[in-house]
What does this fold into?
Amino acid sequence: MSSAQVTERQAPPAKREITTLPRFSDRVFRGVVSLMSMSSLVILSLIGIFLAYRGFETFRSQGIHFLTSPDWLSETDASGKVIYKFGMSAMLIGTLLISIVAVIVGVPLSVLAALFLTFYAPNSLKKFFVTIVDVMAAFPSILYGLWGFFVLSPMAEYWAKLINKYFGWFPAFHVDDPSFNSSPFIAGLVLSIMIIPIVTSVSREIFSQTPLDRIQAAYALGATRWAMIRTVALPFGASGIVGGAMLGLGRALGETVAVYSVLNIVYKINWHVLYGFGGNVASMIVSKWGEASFTEAKALLAAGLVLFIMTLLVNMGANSIVTRTIKSGR
Amino acid sequence: MNDENTNSQGDDMSTSTPSVLSSVAQNRAAHHEANSAPMGSGLEARGVHAWFGKHHALENVSLDFNPGTVTALIGPSGCGKSTFIRTLNRMHEFIPSAAMAGEVLLDGKDIYSSGIDVTQIRLKIGMVFQKPNPFPSMTIGQNVLAGLKLAQLKHDNKEELLEQSLTRAGLWNEVKDRLGVSAGGLSGGQQQRLCIARSLAVNPKVLLMDEPCSALDPGSTLRIEDTISELSKTMTIVIVTHNMQQAARVSDYTAFFLSDGGPGQMIEVGPTSEMFSRPRDQRTENYVSGRFG
Amino acid sequence: MTNLEASAVTPLTPWKATLNQRLFTVLLLAVAIALSYIVVAVTPMKGKLAYAFLFMLFSVGFQATHAGIKRGRTAAVDAIAGSIAVAGAVLVFTPVISLIFTTIIRGSKGLRVNTFTQTMEHAAMTDPISQGGLLHSLIGTLYLILIATVISLPLALLTALYLTEIKGRAAGFIQFLVQAMSGVPSIVAGVFIYAALLLTTSLHGSTIMGALPLAILMIPTVTRTAQEVLLLVPQDLREAGVALGATQWKTVATIVVPAARSGLITAVILGIARIAGETAPLLFTLGVSDKINWNPLNGGQSALPYYVWSGLGLGSPEAIQRAWTGILVLLMIVLVLFTAARILGREKK
It folds into this structure.
């Protein structure tokens, strides 16, 4: 009697596998959809593969100089042989410089705007403002280029002079001669406006998820609005803001047309943001493309690969931070 | 049936309220004589109404909270008791469409008058919420002192204040060795007592508790109730609860709220023992005897 | 009796600023404006920047002092923080206004009937604006939008369906890739198509080649919006469909997708708005054309952003005027698309 019970206990019923096959139409549906969803993988891989394939020759002939040398030129030596020197360090530094200006100017403004929208603005104003920010994201980059060249540049040139006058002792604000137009500073300002929509909307989304009970707890302890933001909203949103800033950085790194329109592109390293020349990788590709020989075109494709990898890494990092923050809902 | 109710209620309000208030007043006098230690401030709601947009949530509540007493607000859900308690320290206004009418007097001064600094009001009238809500980015110690940081208050001896607040909240012995640890590791009941300690650290005169035990297990509930009785020696406490036994255990006075489908109203208020033994209103009797709600 | 009493009570919001307080704030701001004028007048500071800076300084200072006197130091800090947040929002807002107004004012000067009826076949960018027009570019842009949509929509929609309906094992990974793809710079999409299809082949720039990078840029936008919209379709509807004995395919095709239809259209419109103004990839893939080209597979094409680009590059007053007019037309297209997406999106909710 008891043994029967024991054996029964020892053998719990095996879980049944559901082995029924879905209908044929569903299998086709699932197959097709799953296959097509791989398109993003295929496209991203193809971009990487083709640019690497075309750029391979340049990487091999230039080696590490491709990243470390500032010279981008082709010379004919005494024997009539063409020597190519392709180095993108000036452009890499320019990209970095412009993007840093964009982030330093654009991110605080975006965070302030997001704070205003989440915690200060009355509802009607909020809706209007959110629409404006969304529209901004859809403005063509050539519009920013045109506006940056004709409207912002003259103003920004004056600002640059002021900054140089009062803060010229700071190395980055030094200029060798008073040439303030078409500087990385101005390009960075245009980019800062271009990255505002994405940084603002990411920050706003994260701020709006600040747990209400924590906000109430702060207010119930006699906090002013700012004290609440400082102790509850900012710590909660901090990593999300970092992610949003990185998304903005990713946009800034790859911007072409707007930078090309306002910047004086020179293949020489320039660390001085206010000084009137610079460049970035994307605008270099455009500016050199027109008269590029086959060899040079391949070098430009290699530069494209560098840009692709750079933005992909920044974006992947940014997205994983943002997704983690939004999901965890700390 | 409904008509009858409304009528009788109207009569009740007009006749019974003054007598209740007077009996409360007598009680307060008795209380004062018994305890001469410093107690909380008096809080007085006069003709308080509350709206959410068009929805009239609370109608004409007048209620006195005497210094050093515990008043329980009971009633079925949706009767406006939580809305009422949130009008008492101006947390009501965080709902964007909210509106109110009437006065709330703290030591005789209207907390809604235009020259008032609302953050000062909330410092004097603390609040504990349904769900424990410690700040997760802070340690236990930082949580307790968060109010000082938030309101930029100075305090000479933070160590002492920390120990004192935690002791009053009945949590000191459990956490004294791990004040530097994140508050997230505490149990629900401990977190709630931490939130009480956090409210106490800014030395409020009145403590509002909005169903503080509804998310806790029975053991933690008992600990909190002990804390409440201990605190009532030094401050005025208002507690919303859906648990009538709890109201009976911790409070000196009980107010019964009810909504007949319209705005919530206060039906009756009185000393807790009377409210549970011989309420004057039939609806209160129905509720406390468990016939509805 | 109580009811009567209740109806006589009016709802109040004593926490909102009273008229007097608002007037006082306005007064403070007015004084700040006046003071900044005076300071600019008597000191060597000059320019819009000085006005803006001084006004900011004075208004923040006044409000903080006022709050500080009335309610203490924390209130003063709160007032400063609040003013800074408002200032940040204003600074974000100003360039948008400037962008839109500059475009309208400068662009409208070049609007003529021939702008929309003629091409540049018999005119140069530097000719007076009474000659030639952007019709060919407008048609080119519409063509590009159409082809890019046809290519990207199926891929984007199916990817979104995979993420919301099938939720397969790779869903997290695909999501990650779609996000990564939305960060691909437009110029990279352009040089990729060039490297893959044009560099070593006998193919030349054409409408279809120009549409390919645009499709790459459009896929992530459409996928992400479509995914959000599909997630809004109640789970009950899916279960109801399957419980009626429908296959998943039938349920998705006849219930889920139609339920999300207007949202999906919004997704497509937002995708179009994203690519309509793209310039960089077209420089590599579109070829050139100064007349209408109806053949998408062969011969160069023009597009509005390209028209603007070449006008800006030439730099003569007429060419610049054409650029502004072109960007005005492009901006109007984008704004119309955006408004349409908004209206459709609102209907959904």
In short: Residues 2-34 of chain B form the longest helix (33 residues). The CA atoms of residues 43 and 65 of chain B lie 5 Å apart. Strands of chain B lie at 43-52, 55-65, 70-74, 98-106, 109-110, 125-128, 206-210, 236-240, 253-259, 264-271.
